[in-house]
Amino acid sequence: MSAEAQAFVVFSVGMLVLMGTGMNMALALVLTGAGMAWVLDFWDTQLLAQNLVSGVDSFPLLAVPFFILAGELMNAGGISRRIIDMAQAWVGHVRGGLGYVAIGAAVLMASMSGSALADTAALATILLPMMRQQGYPMNTSAGLIASGGIIAPIIPPSMPFVIYGVTTNTSISALFISGIVPGLLMGAGLIFAWRWVLRGLNLPQGEPLPLRERLRVTARAFWALLMPLIIIGGMKSGVFTPTEAAVVAAFYALFVALFVHREMKFSAVHGVLVRAAKTTSIVMFLCAGAQVASYMITLADLPNLLTGWLGPMVENPRLLMAVMMLVLVLIGTALDLTPTILIFAPVMLPIAVKAGIDPVYFGLMFVLNGAIGLITPPVGTVLNVVAGVGRISLPSVIRGVNPFLVTYVAILVLLVVFPQIVIEPVRWMR
């Protein structure tokens, strides 16, 4: 067996064994990279240390802590609640209206924070008690909110797109643009799925609010609605880069929370910064560990090795994409989104490019698969958030998410068959 093949075995088996022991993912990546270095006769502790540092020494990665901070400030400063209030004012009175509120609010909040966990926690905290009080089935309601939460990694600004772009050297701006249409499709798909779920349920139907009251609630959400316009408009016009957009988003959320809504006091800023720093440290440590493994993957030339194994599928881009998406679905059930990107994107993208698949399109599909994994057991990070916030058993939430999971898989198949849905908007907006 060649040294490259041995390195592949060390990488795949090592990750499975270390993850099976419950080891921290970042440490597992470092140890796996070290094992590959040993097999490749490239062992050098100084080189390992340099790769750890270079994994986080990246200007585009600065977007991650600031988008995380923006999400925390949105929740603490009342921005998220105003979005939900606005959605409820317009559609909350219809039968099953709180479900439509959850979908609309999820799409709007996704265009501000880019964090599935932050958006899901905000939606679940506010809407699940209201749904319980009005007699909504808790398992389906929790499943809907979890499904809405994973729109955040797709609609810009998206932290997973930032991480993917840095990891694979793909245009982050183009990735942001690629997520607009699929994100809206996800929202539309949830609406149809929720309408189907509503059959046979006797849910309350309220009286619509007067137009004056609706406009008043919408006006209260003005500053929240302005945030995505500033972020997307600034990037599209070239005023600032995606990294700078994250800084603008964080400072805008801080300004609105302190001086416009005045729902957050200066004394609360410290707690928000600490929460954002803790989340950032987890993501950055993963990026550092992934750089070690990624460097060794490049040295072992694993993408070309796998390309040789895949053989004829490289000549058929749609078949190759379908197979890769199936593999990623299986991976997504076992790994969180960020580790999936950091570990597998550098291996799979060169194979996709060799088959003639657009790298931006592949990035969108990669992140979409990983996002679906957030609501797929056994890991299902977003499912755990909803279960914890709503005090609902995890098996119940898993049952409730199934109709929406089927909808997302259908959208995934649609995008595999018709890649132009993603590619054409990117070409047009460029």
| Helix run count | 22
* SSE-based structural type: mainly alpha
Principal-axes geometry comes out as: globular
Number of strands: 0
The average pLDDT value, as a whole number, equals 89
> Helicity level, as a percent range?
over 70%
Specify Rg, calculated over alpha carbons.
Answer: 22 Å
For the record, give the distance between the C-alpha atoms at the N and C termini, rounded to a whole number: 46 Å
Instruction: List the helices and strands in order.
Output: HHHHHHHHHHHHHHHHHHHHHH
Residue windows where pLDDT falls under 50 for at least 5 positions = none
Question: Strand count, sense and closure of the main sheet?
Answer: none
3D architecture notes:
The chain has helices at residues 3-20, 25-39, 45-54, 63-76, 79-91, 97-110, 116-133, 138-149, 159-168, 172-178, 180-197, 211-220, 222-237, 242-260, 266-300, 302-310, 317-332, 337-354, 359-373, 381-390, 394-417, 420-429. It has 430 residues and is an all-alpha fold. The chain is globular, with a radius of gyration of 22 Å.
